[in-house]
Fold this protein.
Amino acid sequence: MNIQKMKLGGKIMMRFASKAVLLMGVGLVSSALSLPANAEAVKLRFGHILDTESAVHKAAVVAAETASSCSNGALEIEIFPGGQLGNESALNNAIRVGGVDIANSGTFFLSNEFPLIGISTLPYIFRDRDHALTYIASDVMADIMNQWHEKTGQYLMSAYYGSAFHIMANSAYPNPDDMKGQRIRTPDSPAWTVFPSAVGAIPTPISFGEVYLALQQGLVDGSTMSLPLVYAQKFYEVVDYMNLTYHSFEISFMIVGEHVRKQLDDDQWACLQKAADSYAMTAQELNLEAEDSLRETMTNADMVEFIDVDVDAYQKATESVIDDKIRSGEMPEETVAAIRAL
C-alpha cells in the first residue's frame, strides 16, 4: 500500500455540500445583511469533544469569525469544546432535538443512523490518503451526503479529511496475527469494531475521555487512534508503540440541525454555508500538516516507536469484510465499485 504525503500547495479542492446555496450571491450577502439597532444576533451553539488546540476547535473559531463577518454580526457561533455539551453520541442526539445547533462528527458515528455513510470506514476501502481525498471531493460523496439529509433531515454542511487511523499500543503489531486476543479500545459505535474484530482482537468500547486512564491502568492493550490525537492528547505518555496500519481514513463533517435551517433566512443560511466551507478547509489543512510532520517530531522527541506494519498482510486479513457487507446487502456493490474506481 502506498501511503503518499500530499503537499498542501497542490491539494485537491474539496466539494462541499449545498454548493448551489453558496453560489447564490454570497458576495452580496455581507452588504445586504445588517443587524438592526437593538436587535439580538442569532446565537448558534457549536459543540465538539476535542480540546482548544485541536484542528477541530481552531477551524470552529475560523467558522465563527466567517459567519459573523459575512452576516455583519447577525450570526454568532458560540463554541463549546472538550465535550462540554456531551460526547459525540450525545451531540449527535442533541442535534436531532435542537439542544445543539452545530456539531462536528465523523463517518464512524454517523453510520449508526445511516449505514451507507459508513462505507468509507471499511478497512482498506481506500488505497491511500490521496484516494480518500479524492473521495471527499467526488460526486459519490456528495450523493451520500444528500442521502443523509433526506434520511435524517439534518444538514452535512461540509466534509473534510480527518486523519488516518492506526493502532497505538504497548506492544508492536507488525503482523495481523500479533493482534489476536489483544484488548483494543474502540468508541461505542459498531463501525469501529469491524477492523479489530477482523484481525482477531477484542474490541473494548470506552469513551474518548477515559482512554488515557484505561491505557495507563492496563484495562486495554491498545486503541485505534489517529496520529494527531495521539500527540494532542499526550497518549504517548501511556503507550510505547504506534502501529501504522492505515486501516481507515476518517472523514468528518460540520452537522447543522434541521431546526437551524427553519430559524435562519436565506441570506443567513448562505453565510452559515460560507462558514462551513471555511471550517472544512481549515480543519483539513491542519490535519494534513499534522500528519506530514508528526512522525518526525515524535521520533525526535522519543515519544513512541513507530512500527511500519505489513500493510499487505493486514489488507489480506480483512479483505473479506467488504465482500461480506455487499453479500449481506448492508453496502451497495455499485457504491463500493464507484469508490474503488476513483
